[in-house]
Amino acid sequence: MSVLTDSQVLTRARHTGRRREITVTTVLVAGIVLTLALSLSFGDFQIPLRDVVLTLIGQGDTADNFIIVELRLPRAVTGLCAGLALGLSGAIFQALLRNPLASPDMIGVNQGATIGAVIASIGLGVSGFALSASALAGAVIASTLIYVLAWQRGIVGYRLILVGIGVAGASSSVVSYLLTRADVSVAADALVWLTGSLNGSSLEQFWPLLIALVILLPLTALTARPLPVLQLGDDTAAGLGVPVERSRRLLLACAVGLTGVAVASAGPVAFVAFVAGPVARRLIPTKGAALVQAALVGSLLMLVADFAAQHLLWAQMPVGVVTSLVGAPYLLYLLARANRIGKGG
């Protein structure tokens, strides 16, 4: 029986990891396509999948075209893109800070975007691109404040998380105050949005999100190149010639932008960014941050949660309620695990 050399064992392990990565990515994409098709097919008026396809390629009848293209498609593609942005941003934060609790909805970035969107919608009555820009501005201001307050000759993950939790609490108080000053009907609508909802999604909300992703995704791919080295630690990365703080700031800026545009389009949907990264890393344990797979998990989670919120529960609910039902037990598990092993992750 032949004995494998070290290089042959390494090559075999790489091939096995590559096959698993391709398989997981293919399954996630197939799940997204299937869930997207079901979202367009199911509703008060059931439309066969064949007619859904015909309508999407421009050969459907007028009624199907109105139901699918005007009513259901904006909600589905907004959920897909917002989930992708949240999943990717959460994986970046967690990998960069090397802590599973460091997702944007835990450290105040979501809440900063929420303040920007609430001020713009309630105070100024804006929507569409202006609303997205306001949410993005809120996320940038909040994340800059967190970064400055957490800075002490560099950034340490647990300190940034603690500062972020404080900023998140303060931001939630500001949002609550703004709601008490708003008209009752406007405040009621805002509360639904603050839960994280795709109800009433329109192409007007979708286009700014799509344009932002077209810009942010290539930038993220470019700035994420040194991420595997950064995960080895600041000293090791600096020793290998990586400009640590500049690389970290660029990656955080991309993650903040992704969070801001996602919150502007779908509200601060809880736990998608928090759960997507760990799920992707469990599926491909040898891939490191697994950013692509985390983005796909985020999209799939958002689409499945929205489908369940519309059709599988006793009443229609905001998508954020369903994602919270999934994410809250996972948060409790992480906290219990951290308490057991005596560290934050």
Automatic annotation (TrEMBL):
Keyword match Zinc: no
Pfam families registered for this protein in UniProt: FecCD
SUPFAM superfamilies hit by this protein: ABC transporter involved in vitamin B12 uptake, BtuC (SSF81345)
Domain of life: Bacteria
Bilayer-crossing regions: 22-42, 76-97, 117-150, 156-179, 206-224, 250-276, 315-336
Similarity comment text for this entry: Belongs to the binding-protein-dependent transport system permease family. FecCD subfamily.
Descriptive protein name: Iron complex transport system permease protein
Organism per entry: Kineosporia succinea
Lineage, opening ranks: Bacteria, Bacillati, Actinomycetota, Actinomycetes, Kineosporiales
